[in-house]
Each structure stands twice: as C-alpha cells, then as structure tokens.
Design a protein that fits this description.
This protein has about 475 residues and is of the alpha/beta class. It is built from 20 helices and ten strands. It binds 5-phosphoarabinonic acid.
C-alpha cells in the first residue's frame, strides 16, 4: 500500500454545518468558542495519550501488535474456506455488532445469496439474540457437515452466548461425537471466565481477546478479524487503515485531529442539550456501521457518575438512520422537531457499482428529468440536499466522507469512532470503558435463573414492588 494511496483514501471531515457561520450563533459554534475550550481539549488529549495501551485502552495497540495473530487468523480462515460453506458467529453486543458491520461494509451486499462459485467464501451468520424462533430457523438452513461455529465472549459468561453454545455443542456432539470440536472455535479471554476452561476441556481452537480490549472496542482483534478473514476481507488493510487514522488522532492540533475535533463538537453540543446523536450513512454498505457506533457511543458515554463520584447522568442517545431511506421517515423530525440532535452524515464519493437511470417517460418531464443520470449521482445529490435542508433549518450536522468503501477506509472509520469516543469520555470525565448498566442486566438474569452466587440479587428482586394489575389494560 503506497502512501499516495493512503492519502487518497483519507477520510474527510466537514464540520462547516456545526459552525455559527452556517447555523447561527444559538445552534452553532464560533472558532473562538472552540478555542475557549482549549483546557478541556488539552486535558482530554493528555488523558488519552497517557493511557494508550494501558488498562482498558489496550485497543490502541491492535493496529500494531497482532502480526502473529493475523497470520494465524489468515491460515485458519483459509482452512475454514476449504472445508465449510457456513461460518456462524455466536455472540452479542461487542462480540457481534463489529462482525456484522464489517461484513456488510466489505462483502457483496447479497453475499449469502450468491451462488458458491461467485461467493468464493462461506456464508456468514451472526447470531446475536436468544429468540427461539431465530435459532430454529438458523438450524433449518444449515448443513452442519459444512458449518463452522465461532463462539465469542470476552467474559466467557454471558447468558445469551453461553446458552447458544450449549445448544449448538450438544447438537454437534450428537451428530459428530469426538469430531464436534472440529466445528467450533472459541474467541475469549485467555485467563478469565468459563469459556476458556470449556475450550481447553473440549480441545477447541481458541483465539484470545486481549485483557485491555473491551467488547465494543474489540472489532480489530480476533473477535472481528476472524469472521472478516473468513468472508474474504483484507484484514491487514483494515488494520493499516486503523493505524493511519491513529496517526491523525495523535495530532495535538485539534484542526488536524478528526476524533478530537468531532468529540469536542459533540461534547459542547451535549452541554447545550443536544442529547441525541444521529448516525446517518448514505450507503447500504455502511448501514450496520451505524448500529456498531450506537453501541460504542451509548454504552461508553452513558454513565451515571463521573470519575470524581458526582452524579452526572452523562451521555447522548445514539440513533441509527439510513440515507436516503430515512429521508422519507425521519428527516421531517430532524429538520422540524426539537433542537436536541447532532446529525452525523457518512457519505461515499465513489461507489463500487454504477447504475444508470434508464431513458423513458419522454412525455412526462417530471419523471424524465431523472434520465441520463446515475443512481450514484442521485444518492449523493440527495445527501447534499439533506445537508442543505438541515443547515437552513439551523440543525447541527457534519459529514464524514469516505473516498470509497474498502478495508483501508473502514479501518479508518472504525478507529476514528473509537478515538472520538475515548476523547469524548475524557472530556466528560467519565469511565468510558466500563458498563455497570449492562452488567446490572446480566446479573439480574443470572439471579432469576438461579445462578449460584446471585442469591442476594434474587432476594432484592423478590422484594421489589409487585406489579399493580390496576395499571394494566
Ligand atoms: O461492550 C461490552 O463490553 C458489552 O456490550 C459486551 O460486548 C457484551 O455484553 C457481550 O459481552 P461478552 O463479550 O463478555 O459476552
């Protein structure tokens, strides 16, 4: 990969429409206002810099420290491609949303429906729920002889994932006996949780999630790299994109650091009551990047207490939208509803396909005006039109442009959002990397299911006020 290619593929961040010149002083910011927050910015910059690679910021090293792991993943993926037609990820949250996002972004949009000769890689299924109908529907379409499963859980304890594992392993053992282990790979912590013990007992091939990499920051470790490699994604290019963005995000000058600038704009917006962050890609390939972002932003910044123990109830509710689809559903609200949102638009300069709009309807000018154009022009014109419509209504919005969707630009995009989240968390003075709220839900499930060690939680739950039938219709 040449440096010329890397430069050509660099993401562009256009935050004009966050500025007072375009949306007015009440909604937008002046450059002086951004400068007035230098202390906040410098402090966040320092915190992130000093914590790189430490504690739960191990993910900053992933673009650099996985040479041997990547080689193992590529050779394992090659083997899987030879032997199997289906690759099924069993996981939830950070163990599922990244693999889904990268698959959608970098594979054929109908990958699973393509004939095998064109697909050239196994079908990918990511099972991130415990809906019994979905589980049976999956089993109805899989030929188990041709299926490899990948159970993914950092904690090795998540009920949903472990329930899926138990169901599938039982079926595999009944079908394949001792050979069941040849259909299951585990991705988990090397030294914590139950899955690692089970994997060792069963003799499963295992990949490790580094200690300092939390679920929602794990796409660029084996959690995401193995499924991506299996479906043919160039995972080295993905990591190179992340490394390229990392360099930009190390810049102390906020006008040259995409993550630091967007974090500041979001945090200042939150302080003005813009409590919703809409992520709106204008490309179907990026549709699930918005889902992945929603977990990252919501779970990282939604915190009751700050690092000094004050109740701050921080966070911004992330909302996913899709351009142009949601122009006919949500944009009415975004343009005319409450002033409580920041809208991030993701655009693509060059799509991987071009579709010409056919000639026709010559006698009807109101339809014929479309002829001679391409769908590519239409989607990008509509994106610009939405930016304009939002801006004239004084709605805070900014655009991230991808020169094209490829492994290098997706690596940049994922890493930029991770860095933006880290900077925003530091500006909010919260613990970006814990998730007591999620764990509260997990613990309540353990208690209700009678798991040992959760008796007190069960007692607390039993003594909670009972539902009043008068409030039910
Ligand atoms: O970001 C997180 O830590 C969580 O959302 C986890 O990804 C999710 O709860 C799944 O956890 P685990 O990977 O331990 O099964």
């Amino acid at each position: 990969m040449t440096s010329e290619f890397a430069k050509k593929m660099q993401l562009k961040i256009d935050y004009n429409n966050m500025m007072a010149d375009y949306i007015g002083r009440e909604e937008g910011f002046t450059f002086e206002q951004l400068n007035q927050n230098k202390t906040l910015v410098n402090k966040a910059f320092k915190t992130v810099k000093e914590n790189r690679g430490l504690g739960m910021m191990g993910w900053t090293e992933l673009p650099y420290n996985q040479k041997e792991i990547v080689a193992d993943i590529i050779s394992t993926a090659k083997d899987i491609k030879k032997k199997f037609d289906n690759f099924v990820v069993l996981g939830i949250g950070g163990s599922a949303l990244g693999p889904i996002a990268v698959f959608q972004a970098l594979c054929h949009l109908r990958h699973n429906e393509l004939p095998k000769s064109k697909r050239k890689a196994p079908k990918l299924y990511v099972e991130d729920n415990v809906d019994p109908e979905r589980m049976n529907a999956l089993l109805d379409v899989l030929d188990l002889n041709k299926t490899m499963f990948n159970v993914v859980t950092k904690s090795g304890a998540t009920s949903e994932t472990m329930a899926q594992y138990l169901i599938i392993m039982d079926i595999l053992k009944k079908r394949f006996g001792d050979k069941a282990k040849d259909h299951m790979i585990a991705t988990t912590s090397a030294n914590k949780g139950n899955l690692i013990k089970i994997a060792k007992e069963e003799g499963l091939k295992t990949f490790y999630i580094p200690d300092g990499v939390g679920g929602r920051f794990s796409e660029l470790c084996p959690v995401g790299l193995l499924p991506a490699a299996v479906v043919g994604v160039d995972i080295k290019a993905l990591l190179k994109g992340a490394a390229y963005m990392d360099k930009l995000c190390k810049n102390k000058d906020i006008t040259k650091n995409p993550a630091l600038m967007t974090a500041l704009l979001e945090v200042l917006s939150m302080k003005r009551g813009r409590n919703i962050s809409v992520m709106m890609p204008y490309a179907d390939s990026l549709k699930y990047i918005a889902d992945w972002y929603c977990q990252l932003w919501g779970e990282s910044l939604g915190k009751a207490v700050d690092n000094d123990g004050n109740y701050v109830y921080a966070g911004q509710t992330p909302v996913k939208a899709l351009g142009v689809t949601d122009q006919h559903s949500q944009v009415q609200l975004y343009r005319e509803g409450p002033f409580d949102k920041v809208i991030t638009i993701i655009g693509v300069e060059n799509f991987r396909s071009e579709v010409q709009i056919s000639n026709g309807c010559e006698a009807i000018p109101d339809v014929n005006f479309l002829c001679g154009h391409t769908m590519n022009e239409l989607i990008n014109t509509e994106r610009e039109a939405t930016e304009y419509a939002l801006t004239t209504a004084k709605r805070a919005n900014f655009t991230i442009m991808l020169p094209e969707v490829n492994a290098f630009t997706i690596g940049q995009l994922l890493y930029m959002f991770e860095m933006e989240t880290a900077y925003a968390g530091a500006m909010l003075n919260i613990d970006t990397f814990n998730q007591p709220g999620v764990e509260g839900g997990k613990n309540a499930t353990y208690a209700l299911f009678g798991r040992k060690g959760y008796e007190n939680t069960k007692k607390e739950m039993d003594s909670a006020p009972k539902k009043n039938p008068e409030y039910m219709i």
